[in-house]
Amino acid sequence: MSRRVAPRPAEGAMGQGYALHSGAQHHAADYGMPLLHRALEMVPLPEGDEVFRVADLGVAAGTNSLEPMRALVEDIRKRTSAVTPVVVVHTDIPANDFNAMFSTVTGSPQSYAHEPEVFACAEARSFYEPLFPPAELHVVWSAIAVHWLSRLPRAVPDHIFSSRATGDVREALRAQSRRDWETFLELRARELRAGGQLVVLGGASADDGSSAAEGLMDAADAVLGDLVRRKEITPDEYARMTVPTWNRTEEEFLAPLRTGPVSDVFRVEEHTLVALPDDLLERFEQSGDAQEFADEVTAFFQAAFQPSLFSSLAPGRSDAEADALAAAFATGLRDRVAADPEAVETHWHFVALRLTRR
Length: 358
What we know:
- The chain is of the alpha/beta class.
- The protein is 42% helix and 16% strand.
- The chain has a 7-stranded mixed beta sheet, sandwiched between helices.
- Helix 1 (23-42) runs parallel beside helix 2 and helix 8 packs antiparallel against helix 9.
């Protein structure tokens, strides 16, 4: 009997439990809501029976899309004083769990999708590819997704996180990020109609390139190193493990909007760099429960980053092997975090950006 081979996790895909353990991403979306409301005040309204068309790029499990999409429907209908038809297309990479996404969007009692004349759809394609016909969209919303790269040009030696890269590897990651961001903007310029609004909340770094998540990433990297030393993960598997992200500085976000093909297409309405509080650490400081804190941090990391890392496991790994490695990694990370909670203090950075299509 041949053994079953575990399906390979996909780079950039979110793991199980993302809906429950994406509090930081949700907190970032809260900061973006004022920008979205201002975008909806400015966007040209549909004429006659025309449909208002919206893209939600990087939907993941859908949990963090419910509030902004509800606000969008309500704001537009306040302006039109009518039941304006609204089509919302949620997009993500093909490996995304769209079953979970539709369960969230259609099953949540407070979902915008229960409103009359609202139509929720999905498209399984990267936002670094064309997604819509020219001048199709009124509004594009993307929250904490554009830090994911379209491809990993080179693995980071001896670490899993891009901000720890140096030399040629760091420059390769930065160059890939620049090309991806320019591609993203060029595609959205094509797909938005004149006056259309683009609101992006993008994972970012401070001017020195630090994301303020290095402590957490160092802890996870150390756990993987332990697994290598125990021969549970091979050196080749570990060498391939890099979270395929690049957190841009604010200047890296703005550079192609100042010079280049889209500089005359988009008008920058507002932008700001935000550092999020560490809600989990603040709760730990109140409760003193280090194990609960470690459980929450580990669950967050597993949901956001483990699929990308474990996509580097050898293709022949069985289900049992993959499950055992996931359990060993989780145990190791929980132990490290519980032993020194302050060492993984994390203040995720993001840039909030609102653009108008001229």
